[in-house]
Write a structure and sequence with these properties.
The complex is a heterodimer of chains A (about 300) and B (about 650). Chain A has about 300 residues and is an all-alpha fold. Chain A has one domain. Helices cover about 80% and strands about 0% of the residues of chain A. In chain A, α6 crosses α9 and α8 packs antiparallel against α9. Chain A is globular, with a radius of gyration of 23 Å. Chain B is of the alpha+beta class. Chain B folds into four domains: about 260 residues, tricorn interacting facor f3 domain (Immunoglobulin-like, Sandwich); about 100 residues, Neutral Protease, domain 2, CATH 1.10.390; about 130 residues, Neutral Protease, domain 2; about 110 residues, Immunoglobulin-like (Sandwich), CATH 2.60.40. Helix content of chain B is about 25%, strand content about 30%. Chain B has 13 helices and 31 strands. In chain B, the strands form eight sheets. In chain B, strands 4-7-2-1-13-16-15 form a seven-stranded mixed beta sheet, covered by helices on one side. In chain B, α3 crosses α6. The longest helix of chain B has 21 residues. The chains are: A mainly alpha (about 300), B alpha+beta (about 650). At the A-B interface, α2, β1, α3, α4 and α5 of A face β24, α7, β31 and α13 of B. Bound molecules: zinc ion (ZN).
């Protein structure tokens, strides 16, 4: 019951944060457009007034792409040199706005103002960034430990067979469970940060862990539900977008609008996750955990 | 006396057996050379040793003082051989790594010991450390029509680093393994002015050249080995202590190779009169059907468009990973493919290699060109046919790869390898295989040649191209054509079909492509739609528009084109007007600049040079067309999707 209460409360909270989600959508669009638009320009110049683009209608045509020659070379070098930088900036940007987002979905029932959103983003940025790298490091370490090691070992001991496949599947499943836990830790820690009078990094991390394991029976299934929904949404979206190949100007405009609305919804879903975890945390505050783990707090 | 008579009798019976037919009713080629070999494979010492009786007939009108033989395996003797000097590597350090061929006895048909008369020569590079060509001064020069018989006891050690030939553990691929005659070319043959031996050293970037021969080969080896060869199995008998002896026979092929490995799985299939055998490792059994389909496709296509495959037997091998050095090689009735244990269905690499290597049964097997001197005639022509076969059977846009939105036609591979190479102009296509500078051997002899053959087909049409090859087969099957001979066939067929439409002959085409180093690039530089002055003014001043319907939308429309490269090829130009009119022009492609001017069709909407992309020599297809209203939708669609995917990605990885 607690789970569904939190989920529905989270949903309401995410709707309440619509302005913040709008800001996140807007800045991510600007950031990536700044990266992609010059590529678009290079392609336009490369193809000039040629009719050759008609050969690209049914998919990639290796001859056409190769005949771009120097344009292709500059496109490729631009993409590979800029891609990771943009991704890095995107991570910073999303981490920054996560502060505002957590602020706008906590406690009170008011919709926070835009300046307030930015203030909160700035206030918690370094804590959030630290948490981000900490959790990502743990995820990578676990991925290596749970997936990389067993699969690598079975591969080394002989030619890949059905056993490697089974071990691989199990390892990925275990890892996915661990990922759910890490997300819970990250979300609890962040929810704690924005609600505490004196935010502190390691305290937040400690809270994340104790809250996750202290209320595991409710936290874990709730997060699992949220993750499955997010994954289904993501898979569906990619499936639709991949097969949607409009050939008219109007069609492409519709594609653009649709993808951006879908991204807005995707961000709302994330806010729903934040909201649900925050709501669960607020509910848990009044209940003493059955077995406080190790007296961390 | 007796001593001399005995071998003579033996040789007479041997010659008799070589002149009788076992596989085909009639000989397909003149019996100039023949081999009778009896060897034993020592699987521990990695040697093949035994005896060889062979003959060579002097078919020239002059007296020949010597014979020359290839001793290919000596290329693996040391890193100073021409093969390893050219490749820069080493055959290995340990004795077991090296390859060599030693002769312990060499006599002629009369039993005369020729050992004192043999020595190594280096006709290509004066590398005295190379011992891959053996010259034997005959005690008595061979007069016209004479047959020279030789008896050789030899031992061949296989190298451990397989370059087409060698061993790896229990895997053996035995090629270039016995003393083999060079080709004695009488004057006039292959445009030669003087008669002489054509016997080149073993080079890293070169294949081979030999007369069509009859081979009778006996191989003794451990029973558990599975053998594949270019011959037909005549007999298999048990020899002592777990050994077996295989008796094999091949007729009218230019080289005899064989492979032995206990791990081979054997499959058989049939196509019309041809029994096909496939040998591959257990891990690739799933690919058996794909491989058979590929080889049958090639058999069908080449039979239909070039000529019949005359042998009733064909064996092909997909070597295991340990023997991958033997992959992708052709010995006419035996060839090796190249695949991987897990080759996805959408990737047609295995099929491509099978089609290619089988194709060599025609282009150098039947039409036995000199691979040393004119590699484009085997690799180039064969790559052209390979691409046609692959794209015909596996999709015009997906001959090589067919994965969702990423499709690669085989013909694109050749064109791009050539057109995108920085070295595409350093040398012409008419070069000895080991003389290609800057590592251009493969790009030039395979890809450039295949590309201009496509352009030739673009000019003369597919039907005439097939007729050219049918005539080439009729005229030159089981002979040794030169490049000029091929050009002459093209000239003959094209003038017979088209008269002087393309000039007195097609030499101009080959001067541009085969013998030239220029590139081809046509470009539409501008489209001009100029509205003519009003009705009244026009009537008064404009002589151009006299007699044309008078209205306000009268345009003078001009297409401006440019030839950017040196190569001049005729091209179609398709002009499309706003009102739907279309005019197909034929431009001889010679001028640097060319305009087409139109009145009375309104505005030009777009124009395409070579609208069907038949001139595949053109290094840039993008500038071949121009439109008033370029389609930017695809670029926008791509950008929109990229933006969205990056948004999703960043969102997903930021927790
Ligand atoms: Zn080849």
């Amino acid at each position: 019951m607690k789970i569904f209460k939190s989920l529905s409360s989270g949903a309401l909270r995410s709707l309440r944060s619509w302005k913040g989600v709008l800001i996140i959508w807007f800045f991510s669009l600007i950031l990536i457009s700044v990266f992609v638009i010059p590529m678009k320009g290079t392609m336009r110049t490369g193809f000039g007034s040629s009719m050759i683009t008609e050969r690209l209608r049914d998919g990639l045509d290796i001859e056409v792409i190769s005949d771009l020659g120097p344009y292709l070379a500059s496109l490729a070098s631009y993409f590979f040199s800029g891609f990771f930088f943009v991704i890095f900036l995107g991570i910073l940007l999303n981490t920054f706005f996560a502060g505002g987002l957590f602020q706008s979905i906590k406690g009170s029932k008011d919709i926070i103002s835009v300046p307030c959103f930015f203030r909160a983003s700035a206030r918690y940025f370094w804590y959030f960034l630290g948490l981000y790298f900490m959790i990502i490091f743990m995820i990578i370490f676990f991925a290596f430990l749970i997936v990389g090691l067993p699969v690598g070992l079975t591969l080394q001991s002989g030619t890949p067979g059905p056993m490697t496949f089974i071990i691989g599947i199990i390892a990925v499943l275990v890892f996915s469970m661990a990922e759910v836990i890490f997300l819970l830790v990250a979300d609890y820690a962040r929810a704690w940060l924005v609600s505490s009078e004196k935010p502190a990094f390691f305290k937040a991390l400690g809270f994340g862990f104790s809250e996750t394991f202290g209320h595991f029976a409710s936290s874990f299934p709730m997060m699992l539900i949220l993750m499955v929904i997010q994954l289904l949404f993501g898979a569906l979206v990619i499936l639709v977008i991949r097969s949607w190949t409009p050939v008219t100007g109007g069609g492409v405009f519709l594609l653009f609008i649709t993808t951006q609305i879908l991204f807005y919804i995707k961000t709302l879903l994330k806010a729903w996750r934040f909201g649900s975890v925050t709501s669960l945390k607020e509910t848990n505050k009044n209940i003493v955990p059955p077995n406080p783990p190790g007296g961390a707090l | 006396m007796k001593k001399k008579v005995m071998p003579f009798v033996v040789l007479l019976t041997f010659a008799g057996s070589l002149h009788s037919q076992i596989i085909n009713k009639e000989p397909l080629s003149p019996r100039i050379t023949g081999y009778n070999i009896d060897v034993k494979l020592d699987t521990a010492a990695k040697t093949v040793s035994g005896t060889m009786k062979a003959f060579w007939v002097n078919t020239s009108s002059g007296t020949v003082p010597d014979i020359q033989l290839h001793m290919y395996m000596n290329a693996f003797r040391s890193r100073n051989s021409t093969l390893y000097k050219e490749s820069g590597g080493s055959p290995g350090k340990k004795d077991l790594d090296l390859g060599w061929i030693n002769i312990s006895s060499f006599t002629d048909g009369n039993g005369t010991d020729l050992m004192p008369l043999i020595h190594y020569i280096h006709p290509d590079d004066a590398n005295s450390a190379d011992s891959t060509v053996l010259q034997v001064i005959l005690p008595k020069p061979a007069r016209p029509g004479d047959t020279v018989f030789i008896n050789v006891d030899f031992e061949t050690k296989l190298p451990s680093r397989i370059r087409r030939t060698g061993f790896s553990g229990e895997y053996f691929f035995v090629a270039q393994w016995f003393p083999k005659f060079g080709v004695y070319e009488p004057s006039g043959m292959r445009q030669r002015s003087q008669s002489g031996w054509n016997c080149h050293q073993f080079h890293v970037n070169s294949e081979f050249y030999a007369n069509h021969s009859v081979y009778d080969v006996k191989i003794t080896l451990p029973e558990r080995y599975v053998v594949g060869s270019g011959g037909m199995l005549i007999n298999e008998s048990v020899a002592d202590s777990n050994l077996k002896t295989l008796t094999l026979r091949a007729e009218d092929i230019v080289d005899f190779a064989w492979t032995a490995w206990p791990g081979y799985k054997v499959f058989t299939d049939k196509w019309e009169h041809v029994s096909i055998t496939l040998l591959l490792p257990e891990a690739r059994v799933k690919q058996v059907d794909r491989q058979f389909t590929a080889v049958k496709n090639a058999l069908e296509y080449l039979t239909k468009n070039v000529g019949p495959f005359p042998w009733p037997h064909l064996t092909f091998v997909d070597p295991p990973t340990i023997g991958s050095g033997a992959s992708g090689m052709e010995y006419t009735t035996l060839f090796t493919s190249m695949s991987a244990d897990r080759m996805p269905e959408w990737m047609h690499m295995g099929e491509m290699v099978t089609v290619h290597e089988f194709g060599h049964a025609y282009f150098m097997g039947i039409l036995a060109s000199n691979e040393f001197e004119e590699p484009w005639m085997d690799e180039g022509i064969n790559s052209f046919w390979e691409a046609r076969i692959m794209d015909h059977y596996y999709g015009e846009n997906s001959g090589l790869m067919d994965y969702r939105y990423l499709k690669i036609p085989d013909k694109a591979y050749s064109r791009l390898t050539y057109t995108k190479s920085d070295n595409r102009q350093v040398v012409s296509n008419n070069e000895y295989s080991w003389n290609y500078p800057h590592g251009t051997y493969g790009m030039m002899s395979y890809n450039k040649a295949a590309t201009w053959l496509y352009s030739l087909m673009g000019v003369i049409g597919e039907k005439t191209t097939n007729e050219v090859f049918r005539e080439y087969y009729r005229k030159w099957a089981f002979r040794h054509p030169s490049g000029k001979d091929f050009v002459n066939v093209v000239n003959e067929v094209v003038t017979k079909t088209y008269g002087d439409k393309f000039g007195a002959d097609m030499n101009w085409f080959f001067d541009e492509t085969l013998y030239g180093t220029g590139i081809c690039d046509y470009r539409v530089s501008n489209l001009i739609n100029k509205k003519l002055p009003s009705e009244k003014k026009m009537q008064e001043n404009d002589s151009l528009s006299k007699g044309l319907p008078l209205n306000d939308s009268l345009y003078k429309a001009v297409v401006q084109m440019e030839r950017l490269g040196e190569v001049m090829l005729p091209v179609d130009v398709l002009v499309h007007f706003k009102n739907g009119d279309e005019i197909l022009e034929n431009w001889d492609g010679k001028a640097r600049y060319k305009d087409f001017t139109y009145l009375g069709h309104g505005k030009i909407e777009w124009v395409k040079i070579d609208p069907e992309y038949k001139n595949r020599m053109d290094v840039n297809f993008i500038n071949n067309s121009r439109t008033e209203d370029p389609d930017r939708v695809l670029i926008r669609r791509f950008a929109d999707k990229l933006i969205f995917l990056m948004q999703l990605y960043i969102s997903a990885i930021t927790l």
